[in-house]
Amino acid sequence: MAGAYDDRDGKIWMDGKLIEWRDANVHILTHAMHYASSVFEGERCYSGKIFKSLEHTKRLHTSANLIDFEIPFSVDEIEAAKRATLDANGLTDAYVRPVAWRGSGEDMGVAAKRNQVHLAIAVWEWGNYYGDAKTKGAKLDIAKWKRPSPETAPSQAKAAGLYMIATMSKHAAEAKGCSDALMFDYRGYVAEATGANMFFVKNGEVHTPTPDAFLNGITRQTVIDMLREKGINVIERHIMPEELEGFEQCWLTGTAAEVTPVGQIGDYNFEVGAMALDISASYEKLVRA
Length: 289
Hints:
Elements: E1 11-14, E2 17-20, H1 31-35, E3 38-40, E4 43-46, E5 49-50, H2 53-66, H3 75-89, E6 94-102, E7 117-124, H4 133-136, E8 138-147, H5 164-175, E9 180-185, E10 190-193, E11 197-202, E12 205-209, H6 218-229, E13 234-237, E14 249-254, E15 258-265, E16 268-269, H7 274-287
Parallel strand pairs: 8-9, 8-15, 12-13
Antiparallel strand pairs: 1-2, 1-7, 3-6, 4-5, 4-6, 6-7, 9-10, 11-12, 11-14, 14-15, 15-16
């Protein structure tokens, strides 16, 4: 599937039924468009099975609750809808995007309690998020924007509004010839990339930032479990920017990124080494098991 995302053949599930792709539209006064009252998930289907599907659906509900609305479909109903959408589009390997939002209604200000909450699910074919970086290593810029304090925004919600600074940072990175950007948090600690968590290797141990100001990704949790099963010591802690110079390897994790080695962050270089390549291969095997 190629072309603009609003002009494709296929079906999208929307509020309980499958409709034509091009008909999946909302009104210009949709609350989410004006006030970011929207949450979503990014999932991948491998050989007909969505990896960690139930965990993603439960997190969608959690995200909605964190930004103060209820999704009018149960976990089981959403699971069935994802399967129906994949089947309707004839896809067994695909990216899966559920999104829930406050629509248009009687309210058109900051408050929107009287507006209906909607849910849609779209699926499409999507290859490597970072192109050939899985073998060569991604190149990252260092973002000027920082992840906010949990007292400022609900950092454990996968909410649309939290990605505004991520989009700006990724655009700035791409303008410099980079694939993505490393973001610090409000305290100046290493946090994450714009849509992926980060891991570093030093002396045979793996270090990863504590997710207390950014999303604790499902892929992140999966990779930590995999590493520990391999007998590798994983240390979750606050990481200072100056520590980047001492790390030997680095990789990104996320549903879109999967496990992608990093070759450079700003002026710091990393080896696309054995551990990064091994965990990437092991993850690929796991999701297709």
